[in-house]
Design goal:
Elements lengths: L10 H7 L13 H12 L2 E2 L11 H12 L12 H15 L9 E5 H13 L5 E6 L3 H10 L2 E10 L2 E4 L1 H7 L4 E7 L11 H13 L3 E5 L25 E6 H4 L7 E5 L2 H14 L7 H10 L1 H4 L5 H22 L3 E3 L6 E5 L8 H12 L1 E2 L1 E2 L13 E5 L4 H15 L1
Parallel strand pairs: 1-12, 3-4, 3-6, 6-7, 7-8
Antiparallel strand pairs: 2-9, 4-5, 8-9, 10-11, 11-14, 13-14
The protein binds pyridoxal-5'-phosphate.
The site of pyridoxal-5'-phosphate (PLP) has 14 residues, from helix 5 and helix 9.
């Protein structure tokens, strides 16, 4: 059976939205799959995929192991175990002064990915528009396609200080058809941390056109240079229309555990729970107590001295290392203020098409990056830009930087 013979369900829309079908209609691998295969084949250092090469805290692993031994192996409650819902609520209060009812305003999900998918499927459909920033995390386009809504975008533009939201375009893009404005800060792939003016413009636009705000804040604790993450829900007039998504994956370096959560007004959380129930029903029984423990432990979450603060400062140093190496190799690096990623423009190296460049880079320099075009849908947008991750051990980054330097020399 070829894909031509398959029924026309949503898969074709998803495949188109994510580049799994070429312009000529032929199936192909995503750039992420292709780049990881290239890394494996050439022995290049893979700075394409953003997952840590060191696990999170031992004490958190121990709680998960003990939970399995103690019998936390059957379906937990659908909304999440009470302990974890309470820990998420306390976290929002402690870090941001946000009051969240643990019983009615929290939903535990199978990663942020499921929280985002269930939210979009619950709240948008045919005839609606879902507006995202561009570039955008790859799952957004797929889920918007599944929902039948139309995907619209507003660009983040490179500036010497980092990527910034185009506020005029935002103004033009939000209309009465906009059902959801999907925000992501700190932002993957650009490393941008949205500022007060950008956040206020988003909230004002949502209020003007009665749109919901869905905000992906999985990198909430991975912010550098003394900046602070500001949750969209803390802005005046935002909380009543905002669903906030986060996850243990990035915060605690357990990306494989897939424990995420969603907070917001009870009626919106109810709607999302209705869908989530029939996607996965429940989520990772033994991991929930472990993340509840992690969120509640001061030694992990203290903003000055906790484990997460240590991770953030170590990531800032690793960002500096990679930024310096890319700059020395001739890239024009757009400063990153948070996340696992930095974007480097290869135009000064004579590159016009980063996708072609990234296919050659493993052979030529022994390093893998991902073209930013993989996170865009507007033809030609950020065509010469490459995303690199720095969530790798310093020794790995030193080797990558030395390879990039040697390749230029
Ligand atoms: C990693 C990532 C996610 C997925 O989080 P999970 O908890 O692993 O599902 C969602 N959004 C962004 C921007 C990410 O980088």
């Amino acid at each position: 059976m070829s894909t031509d013979d398959l029924p026309t369900g949503r898969w074709r829309d998803v495949a188109h939205a994510t580049g799994l079908i070429g312009d000529d209609g032929s199936p192909r691998a995503t750039i992420f799959t292709e780049m990881s295969a290239l890394a494996a084949r050439t022995g290049a250092i893979n700075l394409g995929q953003g997952f840590p090469d060191v696990d999170g805290p031992e004490s958190v692993k121990r709680v998960a192991a003990e939970a399995i031994a103690a019998g936390a192996n059957q379906y937990p409650p659908g909304p999440g175990i009470p302990e974890l819902c309470a820990a998420v609520s306390a976290h929002q209060q402690r870090h941001y002064g946000l009051a969240v009812d643990p019983d009615r305003e929290v939903l535990i999900t199978t990663g942020a990915t499921e929280a985002l998918a269930a939210s979009i499927l619950a709240l948008a459909g045919p005839g609606d528009e879902v507006l995202t920033l561009e570039p955008f995390y790859d799952s957004y386009a797929a889920v918007i396609a599944m929902s039948g809504a139309r995907h619209t975008t507003v660009p983040l533009r490179p500036t010497p200080g980092g990527f910034r939201l185009d506020l005029d375009q935002l103004h033009a893009a939000v209309t009465d058809r906009t059902r959801i404005i999907l925000v992501n800060t700190p932002h993957n792939p650009t490393g941008a941390v949205l500022g007060a003016e950008e956040l206020a413009a988003i909230v004002a636009a949502a209020r003007r056109h009665d749109a919901l705000i869905l905000t992906d804040e999985v990198y909430e604790h991975l912010v550098y240079d003394g900046l602070r993450h500001v949750p969209v829900a803390t802005l005046p007039g935002a909380a009543e229309r905002t669903l906030t998504v986060s996850s243990a994956g990035k915060t605690f370096s357990f990306t494989g555990w897939k424990i995420g959560w969603l907070t917001g007004p009870a009626a919106l959380v109810d709607a999302v729970r209705t869908v989530k129930q029939f996607l996965t029903f429940t989520t990772g029984a033994p991991f929930q107590p472990a993340i509840a423990h992690a969120l509640a432990l001061e030694t992990l979450t203290d903003p000055d001295s906790g484990w997460i603060a240590g991770l953030a400062s170590s990531l800032a140093a690793r960002r500096d290392l990679l930024t310096a190496g890319l700059t020395a190799a001739g890239f024009d690096v757009i400063p990153a203020r948070g996340t696992y990623f930095v974007v480097a423009d290869a135009a000064p190296l004579g590159v016009r098409d980063a996708a072609a460049f990234c296919r050659e880079l493993p052979e030529r320099a022994g390093v893998v990056g991902v073209p930013v075009s993989a996170f865009t849908r507007t033809p030609g947008a950020l065509r010469s830009a490459v995303r690199f991750t720095y969530v790798k051990q310093e020794a790995v980054l030193h080797e990558a930087v030395s390879r990039l330097g040697g390749w230029r020399a």
